[in-house]
Design goal:
Number of domains: 1
Shape: elongated
Distance between the termini: 15 Å
Order of helices and strands: HH
Radius of gyration: 14 Å
Mean pLDDT: 94
Helix content: over 70%
Number of strands: 0
Number of helices: 2
Low-confidence stretches: none
Oligomer: single chain
């Protein structure tokens, strides 16, 4: 059960990161672009952290 929940979180944060990257590309000003790029980085980092935890749990 825990492994499935971790995988779900990885996928959720990867999707959010992708959406933020798309928003950054669509942004009309630099501040908005920087905001979404930062948010995408944050979500990508969370996905990476959960992926590492998942790898440890499945090893």
């Amino acid at each position: 059960m825990v492994v499935a929940e971790l995988q779900t979180k990885v996928e959720k944060y990867e999707i959010r990161a992708g959406k933020c990257e798309a928003k950054a590309k669509e942004a009309t000003d630099k501040a908005q672009q920087a905001f979404y790029e930062g948010l995408a980085g944050y979500y990508a980092s969370l996905a990476t952290d959960f992926r590492k935890i998942l790898e440890k749990r499945t090893a």
